[in-house]
Amino acid sequence: MPLLTEDAKGVYVIAVTPFLDNGEIDWTSVDRMVDFYEEKGVIGLTILGQLGEAPKMTADESKAIAKRVIARAKVPVVVGVTAPGLAAMRELSDFVMEIGSAGVMVAPPWTTKTDDQAYAFYASVGEALGQTPFVLQDYPLTTNVTIAPKVIDRIVRDVPNCVMLKHEDWPGLGKISALRASSEKGETRRISILCGNGGLFLPEEMGRGADGAMTGFCYPEMMVGVVDKYGKGDVERAHDIFDAYLPLARYEQQQGLGLAARKYVLAKRGVISSAALRKPGASLSKIDINDVERLLARQKKRLAEIGA
Question: Where is pyruvate annotated to bind (predicted)?
Fold first, then answer.
C-alpha cells in the first residue's frame, strides 16, 4: 500500500471499533465495517483514534486491530499512535508500518502549553518516527492544546515527514485560510488538510482549501458526496447533500453520547452487530433512541426530495 503524502485528498473515515455486548472485540464486524466504508467510497481509513476507543484497548489489542484492518482493507490505512511517551509511539508506529500502514496520526500531549512546546513536541515526533509519514492531529476541544497557524507552518517547514494536518479546530476556518495563504506564497510546503468535527463544517472547509475529511459519521456517503461535488465545482449540490444529513451529524457531536448514537445507527444499518461501547461508555436511553429515529426518518424524506 502506498505511503501517505502531502497530496492526499478525499475522505479518510475515522473508523469505530466494534465490540460485542460483553466488551470483547467483534472481529466479524471489523471485517464487515471495512467493507462497508470502502463500498461507500472512502479513500482511506483511520483507526485507533479517540472515537475508535483506542484509550480503552490494550497494546496487544491495538496491534491486533491494526493487523486485521490493514490485511482486509483495499485502501490506505492511517493508524493513531498517540501515546504518553515517544518510545511507545515509536513501537506501535514501527509495527503498523511493517504490516502495511500508509502512515500514522499523532495528537499533542495535554501538557503542551506554549508555541515552543508544540513545535518541540512535533520536532521530536518527526525525529522519533524517522521516515514514517505522520498526520498532525489538531483537536483543541479534546486535547486542550491550541496550535497557532504560525506554529504549524514552522513544523511543516522543519519536519519533512509531517505530511497532513487533521484540522479539528472549532471551526477554525480562518486557520485553514492562513495555512493555505502561507503555502501559496511559497513560505511553506503545501500539505494535505483533512477536516474533522464529524463533518459539521465540511462545505465551508472545502471552500477554504481543505482537501477532504478525516472524521467519522454514521453515513460516510455524506462526506464522500460533499467532497466529490465540491471538487467538481458543483458547490450548490454539495450543500444540498450536506444539508440533508446535518441534523443527524449535529446530534452525533454531543460529547459522550455522540459515539453511542453513531454506533446505534451503524448497527441499525447492519454494519456492526452491536452498538456497545467498551466500558466506561455512554448508552442511549429510550428517549435518545426516539430522537435518532426521528432524525433518520426526516433525513430519508429530505434525501428523497433532493434525489440523493
Answer: 214
